[in-house]
Amino acid sequence: MGDTAYYIVAILVGAVTGVIGTLLHLGVDTLLHWPKALHRVIDDLVDVSVPQAILIAGGAAALAVVLSVWITRTFAPEAGGSGVQEIEGAMEGRREVRWRRVLPVKFCGGLLALGSGLVVGREGPTIHMGASVAQAASETLGLPVRETRGLLAAGAAAGLAAAFSAPLASILFVIEETRRQFPYCLRTYTAVMLASVTSGIVTEELTGRRPFMFVSVPELPLAALPAFVGLGIVLGIVGVGFNRSLVWSMDRALAFGRRTSFYIIPAVVGFVVGILLIVLPFATMGGEQLAVSLMSENLPLAMMALAVFIRFIMTMASYATGVPGGIFAPILALATAIGLLYGLVLDAALPYLLPAGALPSGALPALAVAAMGGLFSATVRAPLVGVVLIAELTGDYNAFVPAIVTCLFANLVADRLGGRPIYEVLLERTLRLAGEAPPVPPASERRQIGGWDQR
């Protein structure tokens, strides 16, 4: 296939992925109105008490989660969780993208899981579906292995662009995250760019041209940068703990499911999520809009600490259910809460540490925005993507330098603590469960830095 034809295929993959990703996005947004609809129904039924209403909400969410898990386990077990590690495995030739079953299961299962209120992100399904569209095109056209793997990367980038309307970060994500697997050349790199940009254009045409998480951050003095160094250090520690806790929760849920039933934990988690949707909404859902609303709600320190704690727990529990869903969005929401909590603690402590010490005006939203990139860097270990992603998501560049500082130190601290990229760890776990040995890159392609393999 000539270059022009290959580029046209990449554009078509991006366009189709943009449409599918947007349909999932809009479908989830529509389904998440069900708690309000339940309120209206209950208001019309005078014989239904508040406790009964809460139990109804819990039962509805539990049913949706269990159904999502059943669809996934029955028809496409590889569609559970995030799709990133599956795509990386396919680009290494260790996993197969069975697009005929992954596409419908990822869409329907993701719609149920995200619509139930679970703390999972929509980017996992869209990335996997984008790669599935690419696999379908590759099989139809009979593309060779190298071109197929390049198109898989293009489809994954298009999926991320559809989820967050962030085409530049999507391109960088493929290059930085799949540095070991991506068959880099002008042809494949151009295909990734074309697919990502096309998906972003389609998404904007269908949903409107606006930053996905618009935030306005005032300019900060350079004297405030040490606060972001400290934030990066904190997030580096949290990121390593996040990754280890995520894998631990998945292993415990799998062991419990093998001993009893794979549907008990999803039912319990779904029931709890349904209750929290009514009594404590900020503890539920992927968290894209929560990250924005937290910056304007001015929650007290104790409530922000509760938000951090419960978002962390619910992220672990939700992902361990095995539904189709990603961790990008939950990471961003959790990071926002951590950044705000860090700012509140720092603001309370500064008067005791420095004469007339206080955070400058506008520091709290800047810390929240920088924290999103910082925690992403510490968990995914892609600091450049973290910086660009936050800039595209929020549409604000005043926090650009503080975000770079935060991402840099978060990445360095996570590296020093032996933290590894979460998708690399998840791929190794997937291969281990499938009875395969994890991939080991050649020594010529890596250098060891605190346990992190870098090209």
From TrEMBL:
Subcellular location: Membrane
InterPro entries: Cl-channel_core (IPR014743), ClC (IPR001807)
Membrane topology per record: Multi-pass membrane protein
Keyword vocabulary terms for this entry: Chloride, Ion transport, Membrane, Transmembrane, Transmembrane helix, Transport
One function term, GO molecular function aspect: voltage-gated chloride channel activity
Listed NCBIfam families: PRK05277.1
Protein's UniProt name: H(+)/Cl(-) exchange transporter ClcA
Lineage of the organism: Bacteria, Pseudomonadati, Pseudomonadota, Alphaproteobacteria, Hyphomicrobiales
